[in-house]
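G., the chain you wanted modeled:
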Amino acid sequence: MSLQLRLYLLVGLMLGILYLIILAVGTALGASGFFIYAIIAVALVFLQYLIGPSLVSLIMRIKYVTEQQEPELHGIVAELAQEAKIPKPKVGIAEQAIPNAFAFGRTQGDARICVTRGILNKLNKDELKAVLGHEITHIKSRDMLFITILSVLPMICYYGAMTLLWSGSMTGGQRRQGGTNILPFIGLGMLVLYFITNLLVLYGSRIREYFADKGSVTLGNQPRYLATALYKIAYASARVPKEEARRVEGMKAFFISDPSQSLNEIRELKEIDADMSGAIDISELQALRTKTVKLSFADKMMEVFSTHPNMLKRIKQLSTYT
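Predicted structure as tokens:
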């Protein structure tokens, strides 16, 4: 199934769940009660949308750089933005040892691309360009806004559940014939939906990573360069002090890879690097293309609760673009 079709189906499923929520909460509290909490959830996401870029810049301690300060970095971003037919994003560097890159912003015109000092020290130009092509694709497809919109639904479920549970316990709620209080049951159902919709948002996040990988290749980057970059990022992330990794834990959904999974990832990726060169070449990608990736139950569950795809599956997908 194509990545784009999966995204469309996910949006349709989320809209279907929203319709069920409206029916359930509308029955229990009345339409006005539901819309009050829906408005609160939307308002919180809108606030996040407004101040999000400033918060990211503050948390990651980003310093925006000029073309004179970082000519090569600006040149790569400008070339990729022109190829993608989008405005050139603002370029920043975070003085962090952990190697990673990310894109953020409200619109294409407001977009920013940031790299850490760690990734600049680890990747060559072709690998860095492949990573930045991934980030440019996030901006081109506007999937940052897509994930923000999807994130509204779990918030609605959470606030609806809390309201119904409190209403049921404090006031006795609406009762059916026979005196059964239905509000707590609907509230518990909403909590289950909160859990399910969170998983769906994580699934959407993983799809967008696959989509951005493919976009980097579409922009002219060879799959082996992106595969090698992901390999190097995982290897270097595993060696970063835990204290530094914890400082950026809340940002990992923005990153090109999840630093918290790096130890597990390098164990898997060593199987691809047959000649132990520290890079994944064309022959190794082609060999992976013919193999079946089998994950343990633990790895499958880890992926379900992750913002990023399993790295071995991700590079296997890259191998299909060679």
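Strands lie at 62-64, 90-94, 101-104, 112-116.

Shout if anything looks off.
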